[in-house]
Amino acid sequence: MILTCPNCGTQYVVKDGAIPTEGRQVRCAACKHSWHQDPEDVATPEAAPRAAAAEAGPMAEGPSTDEAVGSAHEDESIAAHFGINGVPFFVLDRRLGVSGAQPVEVLLGALEEAAGETLRA
User: Fold this and answer.
1) Number of folded domains in the chain?
2) Average pLDDT rounded to a whole number, residues 24-44
3) Are both 36 and 81 inside the same structural domain?
4) Is the domain of 74 the same as that of 118?
């Protein structure tokens, strides 16, 4: 799902299911604007391709709801460990955290550092 800040237009990619059925309060890391975000609805243009694919036939089975919720809770625990309170944010190899609002060179350097440490281990 893609969230778009209604104030500044910054877009964030969030996992499907991250927004509960009752919606949730979200905050833009770029401009600090907060808004209530409802979950994707099949009637929205972004959801239309997914609805069409579902009508086309069976798809590979994904994780169960319990597995997805467990995964989301694990992600939240990791985020809390790193002190993450905004998006986008990247956690690399469960050791390095980088705010997504960085130049490409910074993100590339972090990826190279994570890969180098993993290879040395």
Assistant:
1) 2
2) 80
3) yes
4) no
The torsion angles phi and psi of 81, rounded to 5 degrees, stand at -60, -40
34 pairs with which residues across the strands?
A: 27
The residue-averaged pLDDT of 81-96 equals: 75
Burial class (CB in 10 A: 0-12, 13-18, 19+), 103: exposed
pTM of this prediction?
0.35
**Which residues span the domain enclosing 93?**
88-121
| CA nearest neighbour of 15 among 74, 57, 61 | 74
pLDDT tens across 43-64, in order? 455 555 555 555 555 555 666 6
**C-alpha–C-alpha distance, residues 9 and 54, integer Å:** 30
Amino acid at 10: T
Residues 69 and 16 in one domain: yes
